[in-house]
Q: What sequence folds into this?
């Protein structure tokens, strides 16, 4: 099953509980615009390489579209389309005045120099600058990109449209960025975990956690949960998994990653395991925070965790979701669980438009407020309708987008 088909299945499961006509389903599912561009760049060796870049703008009925930019060798149109749709439901679940979009370039950033990546990014903006902008579509970081890339985007966009820091979020704090944007997705995952544990009547200190991914989302989630007394016993990155049953020494891992170009490869403070083994560890909570599609019908039966929190986008395949449901495993869905990032991006956009710098305490306080309200509403809806948290989140998101579409007028 391809990525967009999986997103569509989740949409349909929720739409079946709503009073949605087939025509309305079609209108809400089909992306508004899809753009694919050629990106020829001169590499450091002097040869020319040509990459493919995508921007899918899924829906703008609730506001300008918002979504990250992913650099990964497996990026393709179907994946970007699916992630753009997820952004539409995500911004609606947390009630931000945005629609959904996503972009990506099929490249392996680890095999390229920073200067090459800068040239690729600027060239991509040359190709799409007229369909993005503060009131149209606002990119942000995702897998394989970060604050520096967003600074290049802001600078390149300004060459065409003038000074406009709100055209992109996730920028460095020194360059119109928001204090706390970097930690926001992981912090948000942590806030949701604590809320969920409280609703499920579980104590943080009795909840051993395994996290797949030690990048932006995984590392900040680990740090927040450790501060909240949850024992983080395993984390992984592309180099493999690291397991310490009595709890990882996270500060030594952060230090190691800083000293080894962001990688845990060669870290000796824990037992090494594979990424596949990490997913099946004997823990209470599993947080996939790296790639999509890692929990499938094949491995879902072997997962021992009783709670899964989707830090990554679409880590649970719909077939696996059914298995988890039948096994009584609680899944907190991506469109809620990792919405802290886009929420902080919204604050950054507001800050840029107001030309008023927010402080970290205000960011954290507002983040907590927005995410807590969204969590409570989805939790209540799941219990009122007797549906999973994923279906409840979709019902909430689709409902809001559908109402805005009708109120705004369709033709
Ligand atoms: P990142 O690039 O900072 O980190 C990705 C991590 O995944 C790294 O530790 C990398 O080593 C690891 N990884 C890569 N390939 C792997 C593999 N084959 N097996 C195991 N681990 C692997 O990315 P990120 O920003 O942390 O994003 C992670 C996920 O969270 C993505 O699905 C992304 O769409 C989602 N997300 C990110 C944000 C955000 O604000 N960064 C917001 C919402 C959702």
A:
């Amino acid at each position: 099953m391809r990525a967009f088909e999986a997103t569509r299945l989740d949409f349909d499961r929720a739409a079946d509980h709503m009073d949605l006509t087939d025509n309305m389903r079609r209108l809400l599912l089909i992306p508004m615009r899809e753009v694919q561009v050629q990106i020829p760049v001169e590499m450091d060796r002097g040869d020319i390489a040509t990459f493919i870049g995508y921007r899918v703008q899924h829906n703008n009925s609730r506001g300008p579209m918002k979504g990250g930019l992913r650099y990964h060798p497996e990026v393709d149109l179907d994946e970007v389309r699916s992630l753009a749709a997820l952004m539409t439901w995500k911004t609606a679940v947390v009630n931000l005045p945005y629609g959904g979009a996503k972009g990506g370039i099929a490249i392996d950033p680890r095999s390229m120099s920073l200067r090459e990546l800068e040239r690729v990014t600027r060239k991509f903006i040359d190709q799409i600058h007229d369909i993005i902008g503060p009131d149209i579509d606002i990119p942000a970081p995702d897998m394989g990109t970060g604050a520096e890339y967003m600074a290049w985007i802001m600078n390149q966009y300004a060459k065409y449209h003038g000074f406009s820091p709100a055209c992109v979020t996730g920028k460095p704090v020194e360059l119109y960025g928001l204090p706390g944007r970097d930690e926001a997705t992981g912090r948000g995952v942590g806030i949701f975990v604590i809320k969920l544990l409280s609703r499920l009547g579980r104590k943080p200190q009795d909840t051993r956690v395994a996290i797949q991914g030690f990048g932006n989302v995984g590392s900040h989630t680990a740090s927040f949960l450790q501060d909240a007394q949850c024992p983080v016993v395993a984390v992984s990155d592309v180099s493999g998994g690291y397991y310490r049953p009595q709890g990882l020494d996270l500060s030594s891992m952060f230090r190691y990653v800083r000293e080894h170009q962001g990688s845990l490869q060669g870290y000796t403070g824990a037992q090494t395991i594979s990424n596949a083994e990490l997913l099946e560890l004997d823990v209470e909570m599993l947080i996939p925070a790296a790639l999509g599609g890692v929990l499938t019908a094949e491995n879902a039966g072997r997962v021992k965790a009783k709670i899964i929190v989707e830090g990554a986008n679409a880590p649970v395949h719909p077939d696996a979701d059914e298995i988890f449901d039948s096994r009584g495993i609680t899944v907190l869905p991506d469109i809620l669980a990792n919405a802290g990032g886009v929420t902080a991006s919204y604050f950054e956009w507001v800050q840029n438009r107001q030309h008023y710098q927010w402080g970290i305490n205000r960011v954290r306080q507002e983040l907590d407020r927005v995410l807590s309200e969204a969590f409570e509403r989805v939790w209540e809806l799941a219990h009122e309708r007797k549906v999973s948290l994923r279906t409840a989140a979709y019902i909430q998101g689709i409902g809001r987008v559908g109402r805005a579409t009708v109120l705004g007028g369709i033709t």
In short: The mean pLDDT is 97.
